[in-house]
Amino acid sequence: MLGLFLACSVALGGPSPAFSAPPPDPKAAESKKKAKPHFEKARQAYRNGQYREAVSELEKAIEIDPGGKDLHFNLALVYEKLGEVDLAINAYKRYTELETDPQELEKTIQTIRRLEGAREELRKKEEPSVVPAPQDAPPPERETIVVREPAAEKPKKGRLDGWVYGAGGVAIAAALAGTYFGLRALSTQPKSNEATGNGTSIYDLQDRADRAHSYAVAADICFGVSAVAAGAGLLLYFTRDAKPTTGFRADVRATARGGGVSLGASF
Question: Is pTM, for the whole model, over 0.85?
Answer without folding.
Answer: no
